[in-house]
Amino acid sequence: MEDDAPVIYGIEFQARALTAQTAETESIRFLVGTQSLKYDNQIHIVDFDDENNIINKNVLLHQVGEIWHLSASPADKRVLTTCYSKTSDSKVVTCAAMWRMPKELESGNHESPDDSSSNPQTLELLCHLDNTAHGNMACVLWEPMGDGKRLISLADNHVQLWDLQESSSKAVISSSATLEGKGQLKLTSGRWSPHHNCTQVATANDTAIRGWDIRSMSQIYCIENAHGQLVRDLDFNPNKQYYLASCGDDCKVKFWDVRNINEPVKSLEDHSHWVWSVRYNNSHDQLVLTGSSDSRVILSNMVSISSEPFGHLVDEDDLSDQEDNPQDKRKEPLQDSIIATYEEHEDSVYAVEWSSADPWLFASLSYDGRLVINRVPRALKYQILL
Questions:
Q1: Are 177 and 217 a contacting pair, CB within 8 Å?
Q2: How far is it, in rounded angstroms, from Cα 219 to Cα 199?
């Protein structure tokens, strides 16, 4: 089999929630949450065996409702949060809860691929992020690189910081902020910055992007019309502290320096429909993934605005060997480009995620329950490394 060939895993239910298992840095593992109105929903734990190019899976029951968002603890492999919808007093409400997976799954025991999910295991409920007073949960964000004790939730127009107590069996709101303004303001997505000692969070509502300082719970910047239509997703550059990527229903992906919010540093229009998901590679920030309801996943090389715009910088020692060839001294900035467009999906791609164990591998999920695992093309990998 070709090394760069995609590997496809099909789930019998519709799905839109995907996350890498953040605390797992040895095995390539993704979690997928389903959306079924008729049957019990599930979380699929998908392990990718890189050497043999095969997928192993385990299925956990999530009986409380359709999963809209999944987030894995950065500190404990077995802990995750879900945002799910349920019917309460003939109204649909979106809640959030924290769960623990069964211990035996940690060692990577699997059903064989041809097993049906006839006896899925159940998740252990650790606690609810009890939010009935503040509206519907859009997403839950873990503190990046934290000890798994702090979370932020976005619910309607509230940003809430939670502290986990009593070994995660209790979650308490330690502070919160409310988005003020005309009309019914609703936060749709957010991202916790790994920089500035993890004191900043960016949120999206309608066409605006806002930055918050979580120590004072005050707004620090606001990009009013960041996109022409709804902003769908955000991500921070892991290596450049002021850089933020956004995507939205105007089919665009934009890159911002939050110190100068008047206009984006760069704007891409490579998709032909709403862009639902944008992700920087965790190690090589020139690699940017986007997923859209045009059913395509695009991998871009945004090298001009990356932390290495000239590729690897050359050492002075190396230059002394090239005195006779002075034009080699000055490296030209590399050009931004689309590396690859992946077309294995036949439905809207709602989520793209990089593996937390292998920086050259990523997964994408479309609404029909198709999970596709792909690799960065080998030629580009060696170009970046060498």
A1: yes
A2: 12
